[in-house]
Design a protein that fits this description.
The chain is an alpha/beta fold. It has 2 domains: about 140 residues, Aspartate Aminotransferase, domain 1, CATH 3.90.1150; about 240 residues, Type I PLP-dependent aspartate aminotransferase-like (Major domain) (Aspartate Aminotransferase, domain 2), CATH 3.40.640.10. The chain is about 40% helix and about 15% strand. It is built from 13 helices and 15 strands. Strands 2-10-9-8-7-3-4 form a 7-stranded mixed beta sheet, with helices on both faces. Helix 4 crosses helix 8 and helix 11 packs across helix 13.
Length: about 375
């Protein structure tokens, strides 16, 4: 018998498609189903990891809240983008990846039955964590246009009410690639203040934008600095997925609770990974490194958009993925996913469970396949259709 907290939590679909593709053992499969990337991590981070393997201090539970070097690097990184300073000792904590940070933060801020505002579509893993924490997702529908995704700032603000614990926003939103800007943060600021709610900002991809502009961090907006909890991760921008290191920064009073949840949950982070992440975050060329990686992903995104021109594909403004609206094709996302898998050797995930409108979309991840392998994408789609 499933316990009650799991009854409304479906899977995310990615594991099913990914496992099926792995089982074929076919190297010709295009792996568009999972948020992986073949763009290598920073060289300095790889070197620091190798050194840590022989360091006894890295083979320890301690310190539970993260090594000092990592906390200092993470606090400085977030502070630079947020336009304010964070105390590494009281306003920053290390976590075992960004999603661990999200769950810890939700457990520290959401009472059972309270609402959490989310954009729709949205990553099922975030939606499920809201439910696992006892929260109720409150979705705000985003609109797909020929130019990309949009969401009305006032609609976001209107979703915040007396039963709202937090708004959980991403930059860019995953899987759509929608980029939120200061108009959205300004609209949310007044509503969150009025209802004494938090802004939980998942910043794992905030520098992965295709317009060349810097991140629009919500803590820069008047009235939000004291309400913004920023969750970062080494997995996306730094391409350090297997290191499983992230960080949470925010006002000291809430960070004390998030720190307590962390001690009760995962306890500590990967010891041999923390110095490497600190090195990558603090490197003088860190922004240039992320920009170079983003240029690669942008090129791949363009290759997919060009290959599928004329099909109902919505362009992203950033991130690692884009969505195909399967309704004009007369198929469900699951049916298109199966056709692509069986007829075209493409692994792609249907968005069932990724918010109410997810049932209309199929996700394509462009971060893990080089342009040379994407060259035959159009022919594969035509074969599937």
């Amino acid at each position: 018998m499933t316990v009650s907290r799991l009854r409304d939590i479906p899977g995310i679909g990615v594991d099913v498609v990914g496992d099926a593709a792995d089982a074929t053992g076919d190297p010709e499969f295009l792996r568009l189903e999972n948020l992986d990337t073949d763009v290598r991590p920073p060289a300095a981070a790889l070197a620091a990891t190798r050194e840590a393997v022989d360091d006894d201090d890295a083979n320890s539970y301690l310190p539970f809240q993260g090594h000092r070097a990592l906390l200092e690097a993470a606090a400085a990184h977030v502070g630079r983008l947020a336009g304010r300073s964070y105390d590494p000792a009281t306003e920053c904590v290390s976590v075992a990846g960004g999603l661990n940070g999200v769950l810890n933060t939700l457990l520290a801020t959401v009472e059972p039955g309270q609402e959490v505002v989310l954009c729709d579509p949205n990553y099922a893993g975030l939606v499920n964590r809201v439910r696992l924490a006892g929260g109720v997702p409150r979705f705000v529908a985003c609109e797909a246009t020929a130019e990309g995704w949009t969401v009305d700032p006032e609609r976001l603000a209107a979703a915040v009410g007396p039963n709202t614990a937090a708004a959980l926003m991403l930059g860019p939103v995953m899987p759509t690639g929608l980029v939120l800007d200061d108009t959205h943060w300004t609209a949310l600021a007044e509503a969150l203040d009025r209802h004494d709610a938090w802004l939980i900002y998942d910043a794992a991809m905030e520098r992965i934008r295709f317009d060349g502009l810097p991140p629009a961090h919500p803590a820069r907006v008047p009235g939000l600095a004291g309400r913004t909890i920023t969750i970062g991760s080494a997995s996306k921008e730094l391409r350090m997925i297997g290191w499983r290191v992230g960080w949470v920064t925010g006002p000291a009073e809430i960070m004390a609770d998030i720190r307590l949840v962390g001690l009760t949950n995962v306890v500590c982070q990967v010891g041999i990974a923390q110095r490497a992440v600190a090195t990558a975050l603090a490197a003088p060329d860190a922004d240039a490194d992320v920009a170079a990686a983003t240029a690669v992903w942008s090129e791949r995104n363009t290759a997919v958009m060009d290959a599928l021109a004329g099909l109902p594909v919505v362009p992203p403004a950033g991130g690692w993925s884009l969505l195909v609206d399967t309704r004009p094709l007369g198929l469900t996302p699951a049916a298109l996913s199966r056709r692509l898998f069986d007829r075209a050797r493409i692994a792609a995930t249907p968005m069932d469970g990724w918010g109410p409108s997810g049932e209309h979309y199929l996700r394509l991840v462009f971060a893990n396949e080089p342009v040379s392998r994407l060259a035959g994408l159009r022919e594969r789609f035509e074969r599937a259709l």
